[in-house]
Every structure is written in C-alpha cells, then in structure tokens.
Amino acid sequence: MSSNLIVQKYGGTSVGSVEKIRGVAKRIKKSRDAGKDVLVVVSAMAGETDKLLNMAHELSDLPERREIDLLLSSGERISSALLSIALHDMGCPAVALTGRQMGLVTDNTHTRARIKEINAGRASDILKKNHVVVCAGFQGVNDMGDVTTLGRGGSDTSAVALAVALKADLCEIYTDVKGVYTADPRMVPNARKLNMVSFEEMLEMASLGAKVLQIRCVEFANNFNMPLVVRSTFDEGDEGTRICQENPDMEQPVVSGVMYDKNQSKITIKGVPDQPGIAAKIFNALAEASISVDMIIQNVSAEGHTDISFTLPNTNLQEAMSIMEKKGKEVQAESVSSDSNISKISVVGAGMRSHSGVAARIFSTLSNNKINIMMISTSEIRVSCVIDSKGTEQAVRALHDEFKLEEEPVQVSQPATDASPTA
Amino acid sequence: MSSNLIVQKYGGTSVGSVEKIRGVAKRIKKSRDAGKDVLVVVSAMAGETDKLLNMAHELSDLPERREIDLLLSSGERISSALLSIALHDMGCPAVALTGRQMGLVTDNTHTRARIKEINAGRASDILKKNHVVVCAGFQGVNDMGDVTTLGRGGSDTSAVALAVALKADLCEIYTDVKGVYTADPRMVPNARKLNMVSFEEMLEMASLGAKVLQIRCVEFANNFNMPLVVRSTFDEGDEGTRICQENPDMEQPVVSGVMYDKNQSKITIKGVPDQPGIAAKIFNALAEASISVDMIIQNVSAEGHTDISFTLPNTNLQEAMSIMEKKGKEVQAESVSSDSNISKISVVGAGMRSHSGVAARIFSTLSNNKINIMMISTSEIRVSCVIDSKGTEQAVRALHDEFKLEEEPVQVSQPATDASPTA
C-alpha cells in the first residue's frame, strides 16, 4: 500500500529568506537521500503576500478579485522557483510547478476558490524520474485558464490535495512551531506538545482559533484519511504532532487541550416580546450581512419577555450593532447592548465522548477561581465558556492544571475482549 | 486599413511605484476616452527583476534557466495585475493577461527565447468588449507549457509582436526619456530630440549602444513595418520620436546623430607571419568562446609580417587576452597587447547614402581637434572611429557642432520628377 511518496509543505516563515530556503532545501535533500520520493509545496516568503496586497489596496478600495489572484499567486511562484534553484545547486534535481502545471483545477470563486480536481500527471512523471517536485502552493486555475487562489492558508490545502491525488503516505506541514500544544505556550509555560491528535479534535481546535492549521486543510485530510504531521522546520529532532483518524490504539486522554479566543464580542437584546419568529428576524438580518454568529443563548425573563445574547467576531461588532439597533426597534426590544471585553475558553478532547463529568469539572474550576461564566456551549468533544476577558489567563492555566495536561498521558491498554479471566 | 488599436508599452521606471502605476493608468484611460482601443504591455517594477535575480544568484552560481524564467516572469505578472486594478478603480474595465493568456508561444531557449507565434484570440475578444488589455511583458510559454522569457528588454519585443499580431496602428514605447536624441544629452547640452528616425538608423543606433530601444524590438518592427513611437511617460506634451520606414516625405538630414561607446577595448597582435589562414585561426578561437568582435583592421608591416587589431566589449577582454596570448604563440606573433582606454565614436544618418563627403568631414573635424583616429569602420549609413577615450566628449561635441545637429533640419521638398521647367 505504501507509495514511498512523502508530501512536505513549508510555510512562509520557513522560506522567509535566501538562507532559510537553503536550509529547507537541505532538509528536502535529506528525505530524498533516505530513499523517499518528495513532493514539496511552498508558501510565499513571509511578508510577501501582505506586501502585494497592500499595494493593491493602495490602488483600490475594492480591487478586482481576478487580478488579486494573479497578483498574489506570484509570491508562491517566486519561492518555488528559488527553492528549486537551491535544490539543483545541491545536486538534487528538482522541477518547480505552478498551479496550472500541477493540474490543480478550481471553481471560479476568485480569492477563495474550491478545488474541483487535480490532474497530477506531470508531477507524477517528474517523481518517476526521481526528481523532486516543488509546487507553488495556494493557487490553481479555473476552466478559463485564469489563476485562482484558495484563500489564506490555502497552501496547506494544496499540500493535502496533492498528497491525496498522488496517494502519498503522509503529508508533513512544516512551520515555525513544534506542533500542536495542550495550550498556547506563550500563556501556559508548562504547555505540552501533543504527539497525536485526532482529526475531530483538530477540527475543533482549528475552528477555535488554533492557527497552526487551517480548518479546510484538516477537513480535507479527514475526508480522505490522509495523515498529517505538523512539525518545526527549524528543529529536526522533534517529530511534531501526528493528526489522523482515531483508532483503538491511540492514546485517548479525556482532554487534549485548552484554547482561548479573545477576538469575540457579545451582543445582548433585552426584553424582546416572547413571540415565534422574533429570533429568526434578528439572525436573518445578520446572515444577510454575511456576519457569522457563534454562540447564542436565550433566557425567558419576566412577563412574557425574553433576553437574547450572542457572540460574534470583534471585526463585525460595529456593523452588527447598527443592524441590531434597527431590528431592536422593529421587534420592540427594551435595549440592545454590546460587550467586547469577553473571551471564549474551550476545552477539547475526544475522550469526552466516553467520560462524563468534564463539563462539571470545568465549571467548578472556574468557580473556584471566582471566574463568572456568561455563556456556555458544547459539542460532543468540546465545552466552551464565555467569560470576562480579564480572567482569560487565569482560566486557561487553571483548566490546564485541572486536567493535568502538562503530564504525558498514561497509555491505557484496552482489555482484550475475548479474554476469559477465570477459564 | 486603420484598426483603431494602439499598443502602449510602459517600462520599469514608468511603473516603479504604486503612485506611478496610478499615473500610467490615467494616461491609458485618456487614450481610451479619446476613442482608442488600447492594449498595454508592462515591464516589472523598476528594481524588481534585479532583486529576484540576485536572490537566485545567492542560491546558485549557475541557477537553472527554466526556474529563472519562472522566477523573473513574476515581476511582470505583479505589475500587470496592479495596473489592471488601478484601471478598474478609475472605472476603466481592464483584464491582465500572462504570457500564456496572450498566446505568446516561444521556442524552448530559456532566458532568451524567440517568439514562434502569437495566438491573440483572447486579447482580441477582450478588446472587442471595449476593455483594456494589460499584458505582462517579457514572457511567453513554450510547447510544454513552461514559462519562458525573451531576455533583457524583452517587453519591447512583446509589445511590437502583439501590435503586429493584432494589426495595431502604432506601438508606443513609454520610457523615462523624451525620445531619441542627436547625442547623449548628458554629454552634449544642446542635443536635440529627433522627431523621426528611420528603422535603419535606429538599428545602427541601437547596436551602437543607444539604450532607449533594444535592437531586437527594432528589427521586429522593421520586418513587419510597425511604426514605433518612443516617448516620455512623465511628459505628456512631448510627442516623442517616431521610428518608421523611410519615405520620400521624411525629413532626411545627412546626419541624424552622434553616438559613443566607452565600453570597448582593443587587442593588437603584432608581427604575424603574412600567411593565409592566420586570421581565421585567431577569430575562430574567439568565436568558439562566444566572444563577439566588433571592428577589425589588418595592416601589412615590414618584411612579410602583418599587424591585426580588433575591438570587443570590455567585459570579454580578460578572456580574449588569455586566448590571444596562446594563439599568438601558435602563430609566432611578435607581441599581443591590449588597450581598454578607447572609445568608439559613430555618426549615423540615412542621408549619407545620397551625400558624399561625410566621412571626410568627420576625419577633418577630429583632426582639427587634435584627436587621433586609431581605427575606422563604415556602413552605408554610419561612420565609426576608434579614438583614445580621453577625447570622447570633445569629439562628440565637435561632430555635433560640425553637422549642426542642434538645429531643426530644413525640410527640403523633393523636386517633382515630371516637371518640365521650360515647357
């Protein structure tokens, strides 16, 4: 089943200078010298995409999306050509391929295109010659032959898609951190790097703001069961974090990590008449403005009236408030208020499925730390609480301690199901 | 016959910043508002190509040519996308096209590819919709679909080729000077901008080091009789210099300009036995090393021996001398010496064909200024002299004065050939 092919994706900081590109080339050569076929996907050099985007925005408040894609795709073309040149110089034959040349065909949604198909014939031919393929990440072409891009973090998705198309064993995502941690190491000094995370957990973590992987890339890997490894470009000794399907042999701690998100705000509408259709009115108005709402709670208050609170990204607060003030009047609400000093704390773990009492432990921990919970939401493998943002650090550290995340989990071996102890 | 299409090419300094790109967009919009169809070809932003090339050379002494083409082509993709964005922002619909999208197919000679054909169907369709086409200069694709580039100054050639393919009326080359001058204005303060120059004159001037146009672009325009106009991006009032075929109505001054080239060296081989085949031996060795020789003179010296002198670019002097020292021994020459303090002064004018005595006036002028002539070469419309480089400025100014180049030439009307004065 093994194809001997490994896909390696290097992010912008990994190829941020000529010197770093040379370092990446050495690392690739090592994999190839070890007998692997290697296909590499690169991002633009760190800062390049922002530089190009800033020029476009200096020229136009609303630059044409088609031209933005042509503009931004240059960044990855540059880094892929330079990396290929560096590999050649080390005696490691390599061929740089653009989105078109790697056969990455997308729909026509410029700046956030979806992959339709991959015709990786050329990449496959190059690999058969025992050359390294260096693909420009983040980009494809639509049916008209115009350049499209996959949106921010799209290079991760390019890498997984190519790994799936070419039936690679593994897709390695090289970045500037060692892997996925139990908590943000800048906030929790004893945060531990996780050796394994399930796709489901990683999906929750990515949607909660873990920036190490884009949610789309994890979805893609999960759909096609392509194992991912997140690891550091600059620390060869560390094996990083493996992200794959859950299986019975996998270590399954109850809780894998504690996440926080300070970039949320809360809007509260008080004293809304408790009639059918009011909530629909409010949230339809937000949906029409393309504002995505995260948590929603509704409490019955006195005399047939109700209070509704919801959270949303900080960046949408101003627009949402002006909509809500209008809608509030329409539905005869008592008041509309907002709070941007909130923080969402989340505890994620695949083991929650089989272990009860996790939510209760979270609430107790916060309570013992005199941290008030404003809102709660849960999924099968996650519990999130909105708190006052002042308490963020204290809450994250306390929960990290409560679930002993700094300790390597004990591997619990499954009891053999056909064992008959007394026979 | 008129197609209403105008091709405008903007060089690197013309699009060297976001502010300048906006200025170029305004200029294009003005042409379109005046009822013209406009196809634009842009170079990379000034400095961009060198920046990319330097990174490649930091990574490898001999970077792969295929990858260099992928790398460098990004510069023009960036400027074309930005210019298209600027045009959109002014309410002037535009579409940026890459080398592939404009249908510019080349041979496979990476970094200095030759154009094989242009399939400009897409550009033509866009023009029919009354949109501006913004083409990334300097680049094409080969039959394999790999990016190729046309060599330095290739954007001028792209522009002429597209103008020919789309049957444009005119190809305008926008740059940072007002046009073609009678002499380098930095050396000759009263140098005059020429309103018209013939293709033949421009070919001589380009090969003599006039940097305003690449020789290949002029050859292409001459072959397909596509009129060129060289004009300033930053001075809208000036109509620049028109370069086109000679015709009877064209002003035909005897001399159009005085050029100089200080980047030449001279090698002299003395006392070569005067036998057949010796010169061939010497110059074959240089040709094998891809060193192009400019002027050659051979004098018979005493006793069946001969002296050979030739000029070549400074950059090849060292290599040529080491070849010549070897060859000199082989052919039993007395000595081999070199002189890099020389300068080639050239006088160019299509009117020389019908006016005799120009060479004599040049020699007299130099002689009156006590400037010694080391070598002479001529073509139908050019006289070149090699002199000591110390005399360069004096020679150029004296010749400029001698032929009264600072004065607008008097338009001499041709006598009607069928006039019979006494009838």
Q: What labels describe this entry?
A:
homodimer; 423 residues; alpha/beta; Carbamate kinase; Alpha-Beta Plaits; VC0802-like; 3 domains; eight-stranded mixed beta sheet; 11 helices; 20 strands; 33% helix; globular; disordered C terminus
Structure description:
The structure is a homodimer of 423-residue chains. With 423 residues, the first copy, chain A, is α/β, with parallel strands linked by helices. Chain A has three domains: 5-176, Acetylglutamate kinase-like (Carbamate kinase, 3-Layer(aba) Sandwich), CATH 3.40.1160.10; 266-339, Alpha-Beta Plaits (2-Layer Sandwich); 342-402, VC0802-like (2-Layer Sandwich), CATH 3.30.2130.10. Helix content of chain A is 33%, strand content 25%. Chain A contains eleven helices and 20 strands. The first copy, chain A, has helices spanning 18-33, 48-59, 65-89, 121-128, 154-165, 199-207, 215-223, 278-288, 317-330, 358-368, 392-402, and strands spanning 5-10, 37-42, 94-97, 104-106, 115-118, 132-136, 139-141, 147-149, 170-175, 196-198, 228-232, 241-244, 257-261, 264-273, 296-300, 305-313, 335-339, 342-348, 373-379, 382-388. Chain A has an eight-stranded mixed β-sheet with strand order 3-6-2-1-9-11-12-10, sandwiched between helices. A four-stranded antiparallel β-sheet of chain A has the order 13-18-20-19, with helices on both faces. In chain A, helix 5 (154-165) packs parallel to helix 7 and helix 10 crosses helix 11 (392-402). The two termini of chain A are 40 Å apart. Residues 413-423 of chain A have low confidence and may be disordered.
